[in-house]
Amino acid sequence: MPRREAMTQTPSLWPPSFKATIFDFDGTISNTAHLWHEVDVAFLGAHGIDFDESYGRALNVLGFAAGARYTIERYGLSESVEEVCEAWTRMGRALYETRATLRPGVEAYLHALRAQGIPIGLATTNAPSVLDAIRHVDVDGLFDARVHGAEVTWGKDHPDIYLECARRLDAAPKDCIVFEDIIQGVLSAHAVGMLTCGVRSSDPIQQVGELQSVSDLWIDSWEDITPHPFASPPAH
């Protein structure tokens, strides 16, 4: 899908040209893409299977249950979906507890958006208990609404998770921007009329050129956004 040819105004990240925001978590605003790579390599290695990029890209789109079903079918594993999800959650929680951090510049931008009265949503295929285990990031304090993959029927190759997040923010899809680091998410958000911003992540399997070509806006680094006037983080 090509980038939109015509819009009522030139979109911008600051000052905001949207009324509500929806953020992906892993890779997009957090330095956690490598943690899931570690989980994937370790999980497959325990079964005598080598990790490959096509598998990693497939899991990026799917939620835990769908990803587990895909893994079982692809590799002929004997475990149940529940057992695979339990293993991933246990491994993810252990890594996220002390190693998950936000990318530089993210928190300042989120606080600036909130100071402008713009609601902030999270749309992630990650499990709630994994994000809740993080010590160094107040996930609930950053977002006005959280939607996890297990709460909707389809993965990010469908727009369900973004539409549900918009609903919880009480925002029309056309008034939302979605920040994503995967192509399928950007295309799904486009399909329901949402503005999109592709984000370069540290994931070595990210398809940067293709993602950039289908996104309305693009971020190489969150530190490139300089809100003015600068909004200080709220007091705790």
Number of E-state strands: 6
Enter the CATH topology name of the largest domain: Rossmann fold
Q: What is the CATH H-level superfamily of the largest domain? A: HAD superfamily/HAD-like
> Strand-residue fraction?
5-15%
- What structural category arises from helix and sheet content? alpha/beta
Oligomer: single chain
Count up the helices: 10
Helix percentage range: 40-55%
Protein name: HAD hydrolase, family IA, variant 3
InterPro entries: HAD-like_sf, HAD-SF_hydro_IA, HAD_sf, PGP-like_dom2
GO molecular function, one term: phosphatase activity
Pfam family, one: Hydrolase
Can you tell me about this structure?
- This protein folds into two domains: 20-32 and 101-224, 3-Layer(aba) Sandwich (Rossmann fold), CATH 3.40.50; 35-99.
- The chain has helices at residues 33-45, 53-61, 64-75, 81-99, 106-115, 128-132, 139-142, 160-168, 183-191, 208-214; strands spanning 20-23, 120-124, 145-148, 176-180, 195-199, 217-219.
- The relative contact order is 0.20.
- The N and C termini lie far apart (43 Å).
- It has ten helices and six strands, in the order βαααααβααβαβαβαβ.
- A six-stranded parallel beta sheet has the order 3-2-1-4-5-6.
- Helix 9 (183-191) links the parallel strand 4 and strand 5 (195-199).
- The chain is of the alpha/beta class and 236 residues long.
- Helix 1 (33-45) packs across helix 4, helix 2 (53-61) runs antiparallel to helix 3 and helix 3 (64-75) packs across helix 4.
Secondary structure layout plus pairing:
Elements: E1 20-23, H1 33-45, H2 53-61, H3 64-75, H4 81-99, H5 106-115, E2 120-124, H6 128-132, H7 139-142, E3 145-148, H8 160-168, E4 176-180, H9 183-191, E5 195-199, H10 208-214, E6 217-219
Parallel strand pairs: 1-2, 1-4, 2-3, 4-5, 5-6
Helix pairs in contact: 1-4, 2-3, 3-4
